[in-house]
Amino acid sequence: MLKYIGIAANELDTYLDYALLSIVAIYMYHATPSEMGWLGACFALPFLFSSYFFGKLFDNGKVHQWRTVLFTINTITTPLFILTGNVYGLFIIAFVKTWSRCGLNISNVKLNENDDDAKRFFEIYGYLINFSRVLVPLTVVYLYNLIGIWAVIIFSSGLNLLSVLTSQISLKLQDCTHDQEVDNPEQVETKYSFVNEIRANKDLFYLVTGYTIANFAFFLSNDMLGLFFKSAGESENSIGMIISLLGVGGIIGTKLASLLNKTLRPVIILMASMIINTIAFFIFGFLNPELISVYVFYSAIILIGISSGVTFFAIKFGVREIVGYQNVGKATGMIQLLSSVVAISMPIIGGYIASLYSLDITFKLTGIILFVLLMAFFYIFYFSKQKD
Q: How many helices (H) and strands (E) would you count in the chain?
């Protein structure tokens, strides 16, 4: 139970940061599309250089010790750097806390040793993420409007202190035999190759490739959604609505993925996610907000959330199922590293394209890329079935 409390507190703080930093950047510092792109990049850059490091670190044990350190860093970061009073302070907050969360996200896959419980674990994990998406933005907007920014900051630090406490309790309860999860970490490391794993298993290759390219499209436009609703005449409350509706969709998507998993392979579940996301971004890219009700676009946000929930389950459970517990940290780290390349570059490129042309161009490109990827997957699986 303690592991779920720690995960919940961390996810609550994650979406608190998304809401708080977006509100402050757009409505207090009047950030440009390019600056929003750079902020999005700061939420991704640490995954590039630290994912594989954390993967090896947590596969070698001492999970709760390191979780305590990372939660402590997140406790002090926001109150310290918000005092800079400009958008660059927001960049630092996003960067430092994302570095910590890179490790925390990988450590989560090491909290459940029993393979039989993994499916249920990732389903609950998905629900915690998306309930956080629903609850936190509404709370952030309420506290921000009622009391001010420091109420939100104190709430953030309190969540991380709760996570520090749960990690310390878990550490005390942990058996001495679990202090180190492998007898010879160096030997295990030399035996494992993520590249060989991908070569040996086509489903893992398709999962990693599809997930990475889908992120390529998604991150091109994701940070432009707040600006889209601002241009449509919505207030800062729209930031809370966006994240909350993503959470509503994510809850639906997590349950949908859990049901689909009973009959479909994870890679096919990932394709279902692509279909939903393609529809959503086609709505943003090809429908005119001056002629269409804004509620249609809020409905598209729910579709993006459903796609996110389905993708999360397909990737987390799919990789765990294929790779197994012992090396899942390194595998997860490598997947995060690959995805971080596009997660860093695409928000910057998307912001530049939006500044140079228009917001709807980024959404059109996202929809088209996802559609092409989906058609490629259909082609691959149709012909592989024909050969069989």
A: 16, 0
Q: Amino acid identity of 41? A: A
Residue that the structure tokens 């005092």 belong to: 83
Q: What is the pLDDT of residues 87-138, one digit of tens each?
A: 888 999 999 999 999 888 888 887 777 666 777 777 788 888 888 877 877 7
Count CB atoms within 10 A of the CB of residue 355. Answer: 15
DSSP helix/strand/coil, 113: coil
Residue 386 CA neighbour count, 13 Å, CB half:
6
CA atoms of 2 and 4, how far apart (whole Å): 5
3-class SS at 119? Answer: helix
**pTM for the structure as a whole:** 0.72
Q: 56-72, pLDDT tens digit by residue?
A: 888 887 788 888 899 99
CA-to-CA distance for 11 and 97, rounded, in angstroms?
A: 12
Measured CA to CA in angstroms, residue 159 lies from 109, 111, 126, 134 at distances of 21, 19, 19, 16
Joined together, the tokens standing for residue 35 give 């600056």
- 12, 132 contact by CB (below 8 A): yes
Residue 132's nearest CA partner among 262, 17, 269 is: 17
Classify the C-alpha dihedral 265-270-272-273 as positive or negative. positive
